[in-house]
Amino acid sequence: MASRKQITRDDPLQGDEISISDYLRTIGESWRLIGMIALGVLALGLLYGLMHPPLYRADALIQIGTPASSSPEAEALGRLASIFDSRVKASADAEMELMRSRLVVGEAVQQLNLQTTAQPRYFPLIGRWIARLRSGSASMKPLFGLRQFAWSDESIEVSKFDVPHAAIGHEFIVKARQVPYFKLIAPDGKALGIGEVGHELVVPFGDGKVHLLVNKLSASPGGEFTLKSSSIEATILALKDALVISERKSQTGMIGVALEGPDPVRTADIVNAVAQQYLAQDLARRTSEAEHSLLFLEDQLPKLRDELQQAEDKYNAFRNSNGTVDLSVESRLLLQQVVDLDTALRGLLQQRDDISQHYKEGYPLLTAVDSKIARLQQDREALSQRVASLPDKEQNAVRLMRNVQVDTDLYTNLLNSAQQLRVVKAGNVGNVRIVDLAVPPEKSSKPNWQVLLSLSAVLGLVLGIVTAFLRKALSGGIERSAEIEAALGIPVCAVVPHSERQIRLQEAMRRKAPGIHVLAAVWPGDVAVEGVRSLRTALQSIGSEVRNNVVMITSSRAGVGKSFVAANLAIVLATGGKKVLLIDADMRMGDIHRSFNPAGGPGLTELLKGAAFDDVVVRDVMNGVDLIPRGGETPNAADLLTTRRLSEILEVASRRYDAVVVDTPPVLAVTDATLIGRQAGTTLLVVRHGRHPVDELYEALNRLRSSGVNVAGTLFTDVPLDKARYGSGYGRYDGYGKSDGESNVRTA
Fold this sequence. Notes:
The chain is built from 24 helices and 20 strands. The protein is an alpha/beta fold. The protein has four domains: about 20-50 and about 445-475, no CATH class; about 60-65 and about 95-275, no CATH class; about 285-430, no CATH class; about 480-725, P-loop containing nucleotide triphosphate hydrolases (Rossmann fold).
């Protein structure tokens, strides 16, 4: 086959780099998908909010720290602070951990019987929502005849539910009967017995007995409630995890205790129970400490009393033998210093003995006390040296008077402290107080509709945009002319922007509206028609270097604008003064004749079967344009194209017309295009923006070439306007020479 000259590129497409406009265009093209996903996620968020039971948040406020100074405990411990108080003020973190401890939480669980859960049975998914809607209504009439489900304000209160160990964690059923009776049903569905509200029901079950006490029951006969007894340990762990305990402000000692639950009253009761148990635990701890300190003092007081008695006896004996000693001013001052120092030293030693009973050696408090004792002992040694410089008589007097005064002060202080601790032990003053008790909240804390719907909308938009870009990435459609040239090695000879007017023409043709439905005939100034005119310029540059004037328009798949290009190219060539024949060679699905609205009749099918050329040509469907429609349907279109008749038809057409434009079926669908392309002087492959993976175009090009068809160039159709640009001096297609404010969408 003679070599063909490839059409030189007349490509107005500039700026192939990815820009923000690419992303915005992708979003704009997928706005329906994005909107559907966003609305879907928003609907799911709304459904979640409606289906999810509301949660109520109850909180209490607790203050930790030293008690009021006027309390007996404060006075007692204040007196003992410098002597034996070994208790270090607990940090807020330690107190918060104590509130979460099994000691506190476990007592609250047992106090409120939290290991027992009893609640109405709801219809799956929508039951709770319907019950909330009907809440407050006087009627508890079941819906849909389903009596076993709760449809309104059904409720139950159980104060006791003890089951054998093997039944822990299994669900029992309480079925309401005529007031005030109910039936207890085992997990396996067997009836265990009939009970009465307010009376304990005891029935055998397994290797033990079930004890059930229902205090209140509000339901229509047949209404069912699930009843389950969990292990104490599991209930404690669940409550510990659910409690939110935090210090309101650092170093303030104000601790908040909060909990969320479906029942506002029950939730407030649980928070208050935890707070009360913590308060009771603190009081017990303080009382225990006071009792321990009192025992310590009662053990020390007899010893101190004996020491005081001995000191007084020695001093009296000294006075009896030496008379009254008149101390000098220096000796009196020295005596007072020695007394103060010894009193402080004795107090620290007593304090160390008490602390050592609670903590091991190396504890920071013990280390601090030892350091103070060492300093006081050094000071005492210095004073002892000064006392040694006094006359012997004064030395003895100072020593004996010091012992009496030190023992007297220490004994008196300890005696007073013991009396105060007895008051503390008998009192009820702790180290913490409840500032605010929890009250049942009036409004639910969750779901937060404003946050829920906002997050759902944002998440929906994000998912929609991500889906749009993923779909775009997975489709792999070519979006830049440079990609076509790089992948196929053939030039893009024209770019056809997309047009809203063409969409309107297609809609009119689908409605079978009368008239011409070709864009170049109806709106010759449209931007898409300008793209076809650039193709006409490229074809004119071929001149006589091609075998004939037959131009075949084909594509890899349907729906890419192939027929649009063929019909509009024929009209554009005709407006340039040429006589053009347009052939619809798609004998299976061709519909170019509908664009020109001719009456039905014979076409290419009949022509290939032997009909006369002049009998099938539709004259002047447009000024200068004749048409050979597809003709009647035939099951063997490819067989007709393999005969010499096709070559004869094209030779006749080539002689009679200045240009012959042939619209063929897609290359990858049938072999018609490869058969016709062997007879055509120029073959053009239509590529639609964003529709074709590279592999698809490779396959189409290889099929044509393997059949001896040389593809001269490609036509890039349906290119968004922000991608269809002339040089910078002319601006965009839709900006040059545009005066009627037309808007544009996709071509066919």
